[in-house]
């Protein structure tokens, strides 16, 4: 395990865990567009900002019962998932970009020998699609999906499994997230959590959860890198 970095408060970061959608890749508007087509087809109400705060960051198996206000059987959830996510991938072709500053931030982590992982609620097909679109197919040695753990976000399972695979204690991990459910999950795992305002404003985030940091993007992180326990 690499030597820890320390910030001014003495907290140390030995590993970094990233969410995927809205955190590595700037794509939440595309997901919103796909959901808009889906809800219109099935006569569901349009997704309000309040509903997005409720469902963003969660697994599809947890999202669709909320949208339909019905428990739904596994086969139906699988069918809806394939439909919505196929539409998302179609809409996203040639449109995905990394969140500003991400590539430089990953270079900084490598320079400090800080390992990093992905912990996401996205299904496998989306993970493969998005990382390939970013040219990051080989970037992450550890990728944990919500369908690989018992409970999805806002429960901490996916982050705890990522820290286990990174061989790092939860309290030494720093999580980057964009959705309230994901931030809640990171905090429940006992990790420090940085919220990106790529999907929700700082004010909206603070209505639901209290992350340790709030930043616009990774350019902001790099400007105050020592505060994150990652060295200057």
Q: What's this, in brief?
A:
The protein is α/β, with parallel strands linked by helices. The protein has helices at residues 28-41, 49-55, 60-68, 74-92, 102-111, 124-133, 157-166, 180-188, 202-208, 218-223; strands at residues 5-6, 12-13, 15-18, 116-120, 142-145, 173-177, 192-196, 213-215. It has 2 domains: 5-27 and 96-228, Rossmann fold (3-Layer(aba) Sandwich), CATH 3.40.50.1000; 28-92, Putative phosphatase, domain 2 (DNA polymerase, domain 1), CATH 1.10.150.240.
Overview of this protein structure:
By secondary structure, the chain is an alpha/beta fold. The chain has two domains: about 5-25 and about 95-230, HAD superfamily/HAD-like (Rossmann fold, 3-Layer(aba) Sandwich); about 30-90, Putative phosphatase, domain 2 (DNA polymerase, domain 1, Orthogonal Bundle). It is built from ten helices and eight strands. Helix 1 crosses helix 4 (about 75-90) and helix 3 packs across helix 4. The two termini are about 20 Å apart.
Mean pLDDT over the full residue set:
94
Distance between the terminal alpha carbons, to the nearest Å?
20 Å
- The helix/strand series, from N terminus to C terminus, equals EEEHHHHHEHEHEHEHEH
Report helical residue fraction. Answer: 40-55%
The spatial strand order of the largest sheet comes to 5-4-3-6-7-8
CA radius of gyration:
17 Å
Beta-strand share of residues: 5-15%
CATH superfamily grouping of the largest domain? HAD superfamily/HAD-like
Q: In terms of structural class, how would the helical and strand content be classed?
A: alpha/beta
**What is the number of helices?**
10
Number of strands: 8
Tally of individual domains: 2
| Major β-sheet profile | 6 strands, parallel
CATH topology of the largest domain: Rossmann fold
CATH class of the largest domain: Alpha Beta
CATH architecture of the largest domain: 3-Layer(aba) Sandwich
Tell me the overall shape: globular
> Spans of 5+ residues with little confidence (pLDDT < 50)?
1-9
